[in-house]
Amino acid sequence: MLSRYYQAMLDKSPDDLADLYAEDAVHEFPFAFPGFPPLHEGREAVRAGYRAAWGASPARVQEVRRIAAYDTADPEVIIAEHVVVGTLTTKATTFTVPGLLILQVRDGLITRVRDYMDDSGVAGAGAPVPGDGGTAGPRDRP
After folding, report:
1. CB neighbour list of residue 13: distance below 8 Å, 6 or more residues apart
2. Which distant-in-sequence residues (6+ apart) come within 8 Å of 81 by Cβ?
3. pLDDT single digits (tens) 55-68
C-alpha cells in the first residue's frame, strides 16, 4: 500500500492516489493552514482535492525517502515516517518536507489517513499561495 501511495505522490496522480481509497474514506490534515480544508471526506473528495492542489502547485516531488514503517497492534493500521524531497519549478529551489502518515486499511483500501506534514520546508523554498500574500502553505503540498 505504501509503495503505491508514494508512487502516486511522485507521479502527482490524483487518480492513482484516490483509487487507493475506499468510497467513504476520510483523509485528514491535522496541520492544515487557513484556506486549506482540514479533511477530504470520500474517495472523490480526495481525488478532487489533490487534483486541485497538485494541478496548481509548482512543487515537483523528486523523491520520497522512507524513514520507517512501524508495526502496530492493529493489523489494519500502518504508520509511516518519510521525507519528501522536491523542487519548485517557478524558482528552481529545492525543499524537504518531513511527514508522518497514519493509514487505516481494510480489504485492501484506505479507510482513513491522518497526514502530518511539515509544510515549512516548502515555505522555506519560497512557494507562493494564492490569496496568502506570497507565503507558502498546503496548496503547495507536494
Report:
1. none
2. 66, 67, 68, 69, 70, 98, 99, 100
3. 888 888 999 999 99
